Write a sequence for this structure.
């Protein structure tokens, strides 16, 4: 299946969860937040939430700021 | 002690983490300032760039992290950013800021109040950056904000307490901590804010953009302490005429 990851199309195996996507992308989970189709997904649901075909996944990270 | 929501802080200086030349300098400045509350921001992850590890040192220092909603132009965007920040840092503390205009970065009072009302209901500890408007600050307090953060001057402008007269009214009326945020450009500005009775100040640019941010962080820490001590000691009243502090007797009249 295909998803949009921060606007970039990528191919994924079916039944991929948010947690698996984060792992595949080798991302540090601390300071990371995920939204799918503009809905924030709580960290506790990352391992349960399965991505759907054409999902728009947005990743955000904590940075410095005032 | 500074009490915000259910937490107490011995430092009345909050630090913004932006604009430092590198993460090590940020960390050293935080240590030199003695601050216990540090603001952070959010951005979209750049997949082709490595993630900075700025959080580990802050966690080790036992700092209360205060993510902001900078970049939000509406209440709806701010609430989305707040939910992201809560997940990213696992904290419900939030610096709410909504400033649609990039030139002056003035906070939008209407969107800020709308967002504050909803965020409080969603369980956030909301610290809103806002105009130095006594009525707005009262409304934000009534909405359940844990503090109010009126501006001294435009963000990053280093102009000091341009809003002084309004801040005095806000401080007089507030039942939640008043944290003067934005525009403080020198330790003397921070001291003046504390002498007015502000509960705390938030400083970023004046420290981060100084020639020696670590030394400047220490200078701000001392100024905040001095200002608070002066407030607690009670300033002597100003007079329109001279009032001698030495005896004006006529002991030289015989000459």
């Amino acid at each position: 299946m295909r998803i949009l990851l921060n606007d970039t199309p990528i191919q994924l195996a079916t039944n991929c969860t948010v947690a698996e996507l984060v792992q595949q992308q080798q991302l540090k989970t601390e300071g990371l937040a995920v939204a799918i189709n503009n809905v924030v997904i709580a960290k506790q649901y990352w391992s349960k939430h399965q991505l759907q075909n054409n999902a728009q996944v947005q990743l955000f990270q904590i940075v410095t700021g005032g | 002690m500074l009490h915000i929501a259910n937490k107490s802080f011995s430092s009345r200086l909050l630090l913004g983490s932006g604009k430092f030349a590198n993460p090590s300098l940020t960390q050293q400045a935080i240590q030199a300032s003695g601050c216990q509350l540090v603001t952070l921001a959010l951005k979209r992850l750049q997949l082709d760039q490595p993630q900075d590890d700025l959080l580990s040192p802050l966690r080790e220092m036992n700092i209360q992290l205060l993510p902001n909603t900078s970049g939000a132009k509406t209440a709806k965007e701010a609430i989305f950013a707040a939910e992201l920040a809560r997940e990213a840092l696992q904290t419900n503390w939030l610096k709410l800021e909504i400033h649609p205009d990039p030139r002056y970065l003035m906070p939008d009072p209407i969107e800020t109040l709308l967002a504050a009302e909803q965020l409080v209901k969603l369980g956030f500890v909301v610290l809103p950056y806002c105009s130095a408007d006594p009525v707005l600050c009262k409304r934000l307090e009534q909405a359940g904000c844990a503090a109010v953060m009126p501006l001294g001057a435009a963000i990053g402008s280093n102009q000091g307490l341009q809003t002084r007269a309004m801040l005095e009214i806000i401080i007089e009326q507030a039942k939640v901590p008043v944290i003067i945020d934005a525009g403080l450009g020198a330790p003397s500005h921070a001291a003046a804010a504390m002498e007015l009775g502000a509960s705390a100040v938030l400083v970023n640019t004046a420290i981060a953009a100084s020639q020696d941010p670590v030394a400047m962080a220490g200078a701000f820490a001392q100024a905040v302490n001095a200002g608070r001590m002066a407030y607690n000691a009670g300033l002597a009243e100003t007079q329109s005429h001279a009032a001698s502090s030495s005896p004006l007797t006529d002991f030289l009249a015989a000459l």
